[in-house]
Amino acid sequence: MNIILMGPPGAGKGTQAKRIAQSSKIPHISTGDMLREAVAAGTDLGLKVREIMEKGLLVPDDLMIDLVRERVGREDTKEGFILDGFPRTVQQAKALGNMLCDLGRKIDIVLLVNATEDEVVERISSRRVCLECGKVYNLLTLKPSVDNKCDEDGSELIQREDDRPETVRDRYRVYMEKTAPVIDYYSDNETVLLDINGSGDIDDVTREIMERLETL
Ligand code: ADP
Ligand code: ADP
Q1: CATH number for the domain including 27?
Q2: Does the active-site annotation cover 127?
Q3: Which atom of ligand 1 is nearest to the CA of 60?
Q4: Model's pTM, two decimal places?
Q5: Less Cβ crowding at N or C end of the chain, within 10 Å?
Q6: Per-residue pLDDT tens for 157-208?
Q7: Does residue 139 sit within a domain?
Q8: Total domains present in the chain
Q9: Which residue among 36, 123, 127, 128 is the active-site one?
Q10: How far does residue 124's CA lie from ligand 2's centre (Å)?
Q11: CA–CA dist 87, 97 (Å, integer)
């Protein structure tokens, strides 16, 4: 099954995508994670996108489309994938449709995780990530066992540069302007679009997603 997970920044896409990927045994493809890895490694792509990401703006479509084309063409996506953070523009959505068509595949389901602006601002402000393994925590809802240390490897937890309060509302605005139209694009398409209430606690949201997927 080829799934897209959409929703505003901080809605819980990454958190839910990891759970679905684990239970469905399909790879979780997070474009945000891929870009952060490129920045950390100092690759050409990383150097091009670092400043754009810090400002909470979108990386140009052509760079994103090349990145995703290479990733979805790999062997491990044969049984499906869950895309988190892509497409973020209608142009990306169209390019994704074309690249999958070339591979004889298509998007089966779009899961839209909804949360209000105030909820996402609060969640993002309290999001912390492990510098080493990237595991995501939350100071309010998903605390590490030891303050500021990753449960997995004991490394320090940090706040993402683009999670600072002054950038978060800009990212939400970018989402409403550039990414919300992608939802309309899929509503007009023949793709199954499932609306998920992302306001409940993490387990409730997972349960709702799993139940909705099972009914298909
Ligand atoms: P969040 O999970 O909080 O929504 P992401 O980790 O998905 O954020 O993305 C972080 C940043 O990476 C974005 O603000 C943007 O700069 C860049 N980015 C990720 N995916 C895309 C994409 N599909 N198109 C353009 N920029 C992207
Ligand atoms: P996204 O990938 O959409 O940007 P994340 O999955 O990283 O969002 O979640 C954003 C923050 O909110 C993280 O700190 C995460 O631990 C926390 N979080 C995720 N889902 C929920 C939820 N349903 N209720 C409360 N906090 C949540």
Answers
A1: 3.40.50.300
A2: yes
A3: 25
A4: 0.97
A5: C
A6: 999 999 998 899 999 999 999 999 999 999 987 789 999 999 999 999 999 9
A7: no
A8: 1
A9: 127
A10: 7
A11: 10
